[in-house]
Amino acid sequence: MNFDGFIKNIAELISRPLLTISGTEVTLLSVLIFFVVIVISVALSFILQRALKRTLTHRFENQQGTLAAILRLIHYSIIIIGFGIGLQTIGINISALFAAGAVFAIAIGFAMQNIVQNFVSGIILLIERTIKPGDILEIEGTVVKVIDMGIRTTVVRTWREEDLIMPNSIFAQSTVKNYTLNDNEFRLGVEVGVAYESDMHKVIKVLEKTARDLTWRKPQPEPRVLLQDFGDSAVVFGVYVNIDDPWKQRVYMSELRKAVWFAFKEAGITIAFHQVDIHFDPPVTEVFTGLTKIK
């Protein structure tokens, strides 16, 4: 067999139809071209990600999770575009293919709606940048610190050093308190009730001095002492100070409570506790009195 005959046989082999999809014949050559396009897409994605990571590392020095999410989004976009180009290259009409598999696509869509929802939420969070790695959040009553953000999920850490993997849809659809959205300043306070017989001027002075003596509070603004309420068994005061680290609020509130406790003990001020007085109507009192006399 001469060389020309060999080339002719190879050409016939790679041009021979393997199957037909939506009226389009798929040959070995078209399949090879499809895989070449996919490989080129993967290589292009890898090169582009390395270049962007090298360029944007300094800009996102404290936001590695955000940078990783951007790079993943670029990777997915290039792969999807490459896949579409590959299908068009081998002669498959993408619109016809989608039309043929519309029912199957709808079923897959319903099955993966939560994944798609979280994926879209991740993109929204990435674009809006209202939540970033390192932020202190309160979600459904739980205070957490954002460790890493991905396209589908976000990793957060609780005060108990527990790492939670939360779907991005929670952040996009729920009301979230971001204590560090604009700055790290946070105002915390505790409440304490004193007996009605207490010297209120003395109580206020002790609370003000106790708050001012805290070494970990921000110097400005000054601490505030507010009369919160006239309770059933106590006059309730609130003590408020500013701190520069919301993540430590639980520890600082404990320190403030201990400081108030010892200051009241030293000043002889009584911290009130709940009391209930029971009063009987005269007929009931007479019955109990009569029973006592009979005994």
The residue fraction in helices comes out at: 40-55%
Compute the average pLDDT.
79
Number of strands: 10
What characterizes the major β-sheet? 5 strands, antiparallel
Query: Which H/E pattern describes the elements?
Result: HEEHHHHHEEEEHEEHEEHH
Write down the overall geometry.
elongated
Count of helix runs: 10
How far apart the termini lie comes to 131 Å
- Main structural class: alpha+beta
Instruction: Show unreliable segments.
Output: none
What portion of residues belong to β-strands?
Answer: 15-25%
Q: Cα-atom Rg, whole angstroms?
A: 35 Å
Written description of the protein model:
This protein is an alpha+beta fold and 295 residues long. It has ten helices and ten strands. It has a five-stranded antiparallel sheet with strand order 6-5-4-3-7. It has a three-stranded antiparallel sheet with strand order 8-10-9, with helices on one face. It has a two-stranded antiparallel sheet with strand order 1-2. The radius of gyration is 35 Å and the shape is elongated. The termini are far apart. The mean pLDDT is 79.
Topology:
Layout: H1 3-15, E1 17-21, E2 24-27, H2 28-56, H3 64-89, H4 94-100, H5 102-111, H6 113-128, E3 136-139, E4 142-149, E5 153-158, E6 163-167, H7 168-173, E7 176-178, E8 186-194, H8 200-212, E9 224-230, E10 235-243, H9 249-267, H10 282-294
Antiparallel strand pairs: 1-2, 3-4, 3-7, 4-5, 5-6, 8-10, 9-10
Can you summarize this structure?
The chain has 295 residues and is α+β, with helices and mostly antiparallel strands. The chain has helices at residues 3-15, 28-56, 64-89, 94-100, 102-111, 113-128, 168-173, 200-212, 249-267, 282-294, and strands spanning 17-21, 24-27, 136-139, 142-149, 153-158, 163-167, 176-178, 186-194, 224-230, 235-243.
